[in-house]
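Bit of a strange request maybe. I'm writing a small parser for structure token strings and I need a real example to test against, not something I typed by hand. Could someone generate the tokens for this chain?
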Amino acid sequence: MSPTRVKLIDAAISHLESDGLYGLTLREIARSAGVSHGTPVRHFASLAAMLSAVAARSFDELKTSLAAAVQLAADSPLDRLAAAGTAYVQFATSNPSAYELMFRPELLDSDEPDYVRASRAAFEQLADITADAQAAGWRANLDPMTLTGVLWAGVHGIASLSIQGALSAATSIDDFAPFLDLFVGDLAALPINSEALS
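Reply from user aminoacidic:
Good idea to test on real output. This should exercise your parser:
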């Protein structure tokens, strides 16, 4: 990847985190990067292509955060799963605009190869962590992809509601940890009889 392309992605991420997702243009990114306004189109076919590169980097950073959390977690696969969930929400709440962009397909070029690679790799990482827990006997009767989807939906919901302030506004609880603990704990403890999940 060329240094100029990296510089443009860096500028887009900086703009996202300081000013949010809306109003972001190639011209504004060029200004922030200190390059001519024509430079971005030499590296990205469109704003959607550039935003896809930003989202791809964000997925890569999320994957790195999850891997680090799992590495530091206890030996129990369920502890590693909980650590991954915590790292996911921490990443989202620390990078709210980039996180929002990652899940806004209407703003992205969803066929852009780096975006496809990075988003799939992040989901596959969660699937691998889930599979390790299942191999140790946790929810072994459930379809692995369905279980991974449920886990992802849960942590994504906690992350999104935390970012929007809706979780603390509704519950008067500012910390997302109790919600995550209950979510993962309930999945671990409660019987599931639904044939739709198996």
